[in-house]
Specification:
By secondary structure, the chain is an alpha/beta fold. It has a single domain, classed as Rossmann fold (3-Layer(aba) Sandwich). It is built from eight helices and ten strands. The strands form two sheets. Strands 1, 2, 3, 4, 5, 6, 7 and 10 form an eight-stranded mixed β-sheet that branches. The protein has a two-stranded antiparallel sheet with strand order 8-9. Helix 2 packs across helix 3. The radius of gyration is 17 Å and the shape is globular. The mean pLDDT is 93. Bound molecules: S-adenosylmethionine. S-adenosylmethionine binds next to helix 1 and helix 3.
Length: 240
C-alpha cells in the first residue's frame, strides 16, 4: 500500500530535475500570489505535508498558520524543519477538520485533492471552516493536460496510489455548488512540470529546460486550463 512520507515527497519536491525544481518553486509563488496574505490572517493549510508550501506562507507575512496532514511522519518532519516558526501542525484528515465553522480567513490546499477519494466532501469541510468573505485556494490535476494520460498509465503500477485528473469545469461546478465565487484560475505549467522517464530517456529532456521553460511561461499565461495542475482562487460569498 502507498504511504505518504517526507522521504518520498522530498524526493519529488526537491529533486535534481530542473523541471521539478521549477514546478516546486512555481507552486510556492502561485500559492503566495493567490492568497494575498496580510498580517494576522488566520490561515489553514490542508494536507501541508512536510511544509514545502508552508515555509513560503510563513515567510510571506506574519500570519496565524495552522497545518493539518494525516501522515504522522510528514507532520513530525514539518515540526522539526519549521521549528523556528513554532508551527501549529496537527495530524488529521480533510474530511473532519477539528475547527469551528468560519474560523479561518484563508484556506489553502495544494497538491492534495487529486489524492483523496472524495474531493467534494473534502472541499465542503474546508468551506465550512472558512469565514464568509474568506479565500479558498485549491489545486487539482487537469484531465486536459497533455501529461494526464501518460501519468495515469504510469500510475497503474503503483498499488494503492490515488491520483485523480479532472476537467477544470468539474471543479468550477464543485465550487459553485458550495457557494463560492470563482475569482480566477492559474496553471503551474504546460510542459515544464513532469518529465516522463523511460529508462535513461526523459521527456522533455533536461538539456532543453531553458527553452522549454521560456515557451511554457508564455503559454501557461494564455492557456492555464491546459496546465498540469490548475489553481482555483475563490471567495466564500454571503448566504442569500
Ligand atoms: C502531494 S503531497 C502535497 C503536500 C503539500 N501540500 C505540498 O504541496 O507540498 C499530498 C499530501 O496530501 C496528504 N493527504 C492525503 N490524503 C489526505 C486527506 N484525506 N486529508 C488531508 N491531507 C491528505 C498527504 O499526506 C500528503 O502530505
Amino acid at each position: 500500500m502507498f504511504e505518504w512520507t517526507p522521504t518520498f515527497w522530498k524526493g519529488w519536491r526537491e529533486s535534481s530535475s530542473p523541471y521539478r525544481q521549477f514546478k516546486s518553486e512555481r507552486d510556492r509563488s502561485l500559492t503566495v500570489q493567490a492568497l494575498q496574505l496580510r498580517e494576522a490572517d488566520r490561515v489553514l493549510e490542508v494536507g501541508c505535508g512536510y511544509g514545502w508550501i508552508s515555509r513560503a506562507l510563513l515567510d510571506a507575512a506574519k500570519i496565524r498558520w495552522v497545518g493539518l496532514d494525516p501522515s504522522e511522519s510528514m507532520v513530525r518532519e514539518l515540526r522539526t524543519s519549521l521549528a523556528a516558526y513554532q508551527p501549529r501542525a496537527l495530524v488529521g484528515t480533510a474530511y473532519h477538520l477539528p475547527f469551528a465553522a468560519e474560523s479561518f480567513d484563508k484556506v489553502i490546499c495544494t497538491g492534495v485533492l487529486m489524492h483523496v477519494v472524495d474531493e467534494f466532501a473534502a472541499l465542503q469541510e474546508m468551506v465550512r471552516v472558512l469565514r464568509t468573505g474568506g479565500l479558498l485556494v485549491c489545486s487539482m490535476n487537469n484531465a486536459l493536460s497533455p501529461f494526464s494520460l501518460p501519468v495515469r498509465l504510469r500510475n497503474h503500477r503503483k498499488r494503492g496510489f490515488i491520483q485523480n485528473f479532472r476537467r477544470p469545469a468539474t471543479y468550477r461546478r464543485y465550487l459553485q455548488a458550495l457557494g463560492l465565487k470563482l475569482l480566477g484560475i492559474a496553471g503551474d505549467s504546460l510542459f515544464a512540470t513532469v518529465p516522463l522517464s523511460i529508462g535513461r530517456f526523459s521527456f522533455p529532456p533536461a538539456r532543453a529546460f531553458t527553452a522549454v521553460r521560456q515557451i511554457d511561461q508564455w503559454a501557461v499565461q494564455r492557456f492555464a486550463w491546459l496546465a498540469y495542475e490548475v489553481w482555483f482562487t475563490a471567495i466564500k460569498a454571503a448566504s442569500p
